Amino acid sequence: MKIRPLKIIKLGGSVITVKEIRWSIRREVLLRLLRELGTYREEFPENQVVLIHGGGSFGHPLVKDCVSRYGKITESCYISTADSMDTLNAIVRKYSINVARIPAISIPPRTICSISSGSPRCRLDPVVAALERGFTPILYGDVVTSDRGFEVLSGDTLAWYIARDLGALEILFVTDVDGLYERDPKLDPNAQKITEALVDEVINYVAASSSTVDVTGGMMKKLIEGKLLGVRGIKVKIVGGFIEGNLYSALKSDNFVGSIVWY
Ligand SMILES: Nc1ncnc2c1ncn2[C@@H]1O[C@H](COP(=O)(O)OP(=O)(O)OP(=O)(O)O)[C@@H](O)[C@H]1O
Ligand SMILES: [Mg+2]
C-alpha cells in the first residue's frame, strides 16, 4: 500500500456551516480552506490526504429533531439525513474539484460502514484505492445501518478510524475555536488555551460541554474517541478554521494557531 505519509483533515461542521441555522454554508470559509488544501497538495504531492467533513447544520439539527420526536432515527429520518449530508458533500466536492483543483472523490460512509454494539466497522478498500491513484477521498459524518437500526457515524469517529487503520501521521481537526482550552471557551471566556499536551494530561479536565447542537459530542468526545479506538503514535492538531492561512500552516508545520495533542 503506497499511501504514506498520510494526513487526515476533518473540516468541522462548525466551520463550514453555521450550526444553528439549518442548511447554511460558510461559503467563503469553505472555499478558502479548500484552496489552502489545494495549495498544500500541489506543493507536497508525495503526501496523501483524506478529507472528512462534519455535518454542521446539514446533519445535527435533523438527527436531533428526529430523536426528540421519535426517540430514534427512523427510516424516513435516515433517508432525509442521508440526502441532506449528500447535498453538503456535493458542494464540498464540487468546490474541491472546480475551485481548489483537488482530485476529490466522494465515498459515502453509509456504503462502506456499519455500527455493531456501538462499534463502527468500515471497509476501507475504496479509500485505499482512491489514495493509490493519487485522488483525495472525501468522507463525512453520516447515518449508517446498525444492529439497533440506524445510527450516526460522526466525521470525528471516521477520522480516528481511518487514521488508525491506515496508519496516518496526523489528524487535523479544523474547528470554529482556535484551539483546545481547559474549558469550553464559548462558555468561559477566561479559559486558558492548551497549546501542546499528551492526551492523558488533558482528558481528565477538558470540559465535556459543547455550546452548540452537536449530536456527536463536541470537543471532549473528539479527544476521548482516539483513546477508545486505541490510537497511538498520532499527532492531533486542533486548528482554528477562521484564521486565514492557518490550515495551510498546520499542514506544512507545527507553527499554526491551535493546539497539538499527542496520542
Ligand atoms: N475544552 C474545549 N476547548 C475547545 N472547544 C471546546 C471545549 N469544550 C467544548 N468545546 C466546543 O467544541 C466546539 C467544537 O466542536 P463541535 O462538535 O461543535 O464542532 P465540529 O466537530 O467542528 O462540528 P461538526 O460536529 O458539525 O463536525 C467548539 O465550538 C467549542 O464551543
Ligand atoms: Mg462535532
Task: Write the SSE topology.
Blueprint: E1 6-11, H1 13-16, H2 27-43, E2 48-53, H3 60-70, H4 75-98, E3 104-106, E4 113-116, E5 119-122, H5 125-132, E6 136-140, E7 142-146, E8 149-153, H6 155-166, E9 170-175, E10 180-181, E11 193-194, E12 196-198, H7 199-202, H8 218-228, E13 235-240, H9 246-252, E14 258-262
Parallel strand pairs: 1-2, 1-9, 2-6, 3-6, 9-13, 12-14
Antiparallel strand pairs: 4-5, 7-8, 10-11, 13-14
The structure holds adenosine-5'-triphosphate and magnesium ion.
Adenosine-5'-triphosphate binds next to helix 1, strand 10 and helix 8.
Write a brief structural summary.
The chain is an alpha/beta fold and 263 residues long. The chain is 37% helix and 24% strand. The chain has a single domain, classed as 3-Layer(aba) Sandwich (Carbamate kinase).
How many beta-strand segments?
Answer: 14
Largest sheet: 8 strands, mixed
CATH class: Alpha Beta
End-to-end gap? 24 Å
The CATH superfamily turns out to be Acetylglutamate kinase-like
Low-confidence stretches: none
Over the alpha carbons, how many angstroms does the gyration radius reach? 17 Å
Question: What keyword list fits this structure?
Answer:
14 strands; two-stranded antiparallel sheet; alpha/beta; Carbamate kinase; about 260 residues; binds magnesium ion; 9 helices; binds adenosine-5'-triphosphate; single chain; 8-stranded mixed beta sheet
Structural overview:
With 263 residues, the chain is an alpha/beta fold. It has one domain: 3-Layer(aba) Sandwich (Carbamate kinase), CATH 3.40.1160.10. 37% of the residues lie in helices and 24% in strands. It has 9 helices and 14 strands. It has helices at 13-16, 27-43, 60-70, 75-98, 125-132, 155-166, 199-202, 218-228, 246-252; strands spanning 6-11, 48-53, 104-106, 113-116, 119-122, 136-140, 142-146, 149-153, 170-175, 180-181, 193-194, 196-198, 235-240, 258-262. The chain has an 8-stranded mixed β-sheet, with helices on both faces. It has a two-stranded antiparallel sheet with strand order 4-5. Strands 7-8 form a two-stranded antiparallel sheet. Strand 7 and strand 8 (149-153) form a beta hairpin. The two termini are 24 Å apart. Bound molecules: adenosine-5'-triphosphate and magnesium ion (MG).
